[in-house]
């Protein structure tokens, strides 16, 4: 078996059909489901997906590493439940595997928010440089509880076509995600002994907004660009506020 796709899910019935239909070019689809209570697993079965129930345990790297271990393919493609592999990228992935020039690949990603493609600001880096998502067996491992990265000493390549990303379909879901991920990030920083003061809580989010919205051109994406930059700056505020809270609780 040549290529496995690994997808992490929890209550993804609104998006999982679109995601899995874009992965039919893979030899295997392994879905790691964290106790979904909706129709996620039912929908996934239409695609002959191999489903395993596996708790996240607030550790995305650990779950991805489990998927890397369980996947039967020589290569593993990691796709989130709100992402879609374009046909052009699917063809390019197959060609890259046949050529075997690299063992680890960066895949570029296009983000869509409020029905608009974002090209600037917060998402500019992953749009232009990509993120590691296609890896050969035994070339490295995932690190980090949240905002995880692939640690590898292997030679890396970069594909030119895109993953399409459709996150946060509503503001309510965006804020829910921001609250969840900021908690994980604050706990991760707390475990590492990181500290923050009141000035950091106040100044860093403002600096992040100015950088994303003004310096990286988020304003060019209209109202969607403003909302995205503002909410991600709020995420930075929550991370630091929660970290400050955890430090204070630990000292009482």
From TrEMBL:
Which Pfam family is one of those matched by this entry?
A: Glycos_transf_2
CDD domains in alphabetical order: Beta4Glucosyltransferase
- The answer on whether this UniProt entry bears the keyword Transmembrane reads yes
Record's SUPFAM superfamilies?
A: Nucleotide-diphospho-sugar transferases
Q: Which UniProt keywords are listed?
A: Membrane, Transmembrane, Transmembrane helix
Residues covered by the Glycosyltransferase 2-like domain? 4-122
Protein name according to UniProt: Glycosyltransferase 2-like domain-containing protein
